[in-house]
Structure formats: structure tokens, C-alpha cells
Amino acid sequence: xxxxxxxxxxxxxxxxxxxxxxxxxxxxxxxxxxxxxxxxxxxxxxxxxxxxxxxxxxxxxxxxxxxxxxxxxxxxxxxxxxxxxxxxxxxxxxxxxxxxxxxxxxxxxxxxxxxxxxxxxxxxxxxxxxxxxxxxxxxxxxxxxxxxxxxxxxxxxxxxxxxxxxxxxxxxxxxxxxxxxxxxxxxxxxxxxxxxxxxxxxxxxxxxx
Length: 209
What we know:
Elements: H1 3-17, H2 26-40, E1 48-52, H3 58-64, E2 71-76, H4 79-88, E3 95-99, E4 112-118, H5 127-137, E5 138-149, H6 154-166, H7 177-186, E6 189-197, E7 201-208
Parallel strand pairs: 1-2, 1-4, 2-3, 4-5
Antiparallel strand pairs: 5-7, 6-7
Helix pairs in contact: 2-3
């Protein structure tokens, strides 16, 4: 399945989900993820933060309440997700939202202080290409925060496959812990850390050299 077919499938699926994204049972998980990301960042006035796969803008909303004057950016393939994010963030200053693929970011190189990708990467047609693009737009010294499911054990593989079927996720790819370490090193990151979050998710952080 090529990039165009995968992205069209994702757009259809997430457009349908947009209306209930913030109210379903899974939204409890997303809220916990948002809070965790807010604990990991060290934000200062004027910083630029990109949320890749921003959905309805919940993380950007929480970051806007961080107590700093930030420049917040979000991209998502789903027009309905972006529309929901625009409604949610209508009263927040310095926010830009784009209907866009992570494989082809419109931003200049070395632009962001933080790039966050939360529970999205496994949907990307070419996740390594997406990570390379996210790295390109991150400043030297900037921090990448990636949170996604991982498949280091048989149990995680089985649960991942079950979730794919139940949620009609289509073609997805989840990495092992060691794979992400290698990818981050290959992209030039240092101070790479990893931690398991809520059993099934892995958070990988790195500073761009």
C-alpha cells in the first residue's frame, strides 16, 4: 500500500472520529499522555513548539496554559481534526494549524525548539521519513519527544495487532525500543532517553546536535 492510499485511509478514519475524539473512553488515555508531555518539556517565553498529528489540539491547549508566551504549531492530515482544533484554540494567541503530512513539512529548517509526536507515528506511511522531516525542522539543541506504542514483547505484538483490527487502523508500523534508539542516533540526536508509559507506550526523547 503506497503513501497516498494509507493517508487517504487515515483521513477517512480520523475525520469520522473527530466529533467524538475528546469524549470517548480513549480520551482518558490521551489526557494522561498530554499531562505527561507537559511534565517533560522545559518551556521558556518565545519558544516554538510543533505538535505532529495534533488531532483536536488538546496538547496545544494544555501547552498554552503552561504559563509561558509560546508560539504553538500543529499539523494533522485530517481536515475535521484541524477544524476541531481551530474551534478549541480560537481564543489562544500565537497558534498556527495546518492540514499537512508529516512526510513533507512546510516549515524552514532549524525552526522549532520542541517537536512532539504523540500516538501518531505508527500511522505514518513512512515513519522514518517523518522522523527525518521532524528532525530537519528542529533547531540544533532542540528536543524531539516521541510517544507511541512499541512491540518489544509478544504480548505487546498481540495487543497491537488486536488494536489494529478493532480500530480498523489499516497499515501501521510500531518500532521496538532498540530500533528507535538506532534511528535517533542515526539522525544525530544525543542525550537519548526512553521510558515506558502506561505499559504499552514508549517515550523516546533526544536533543538534536
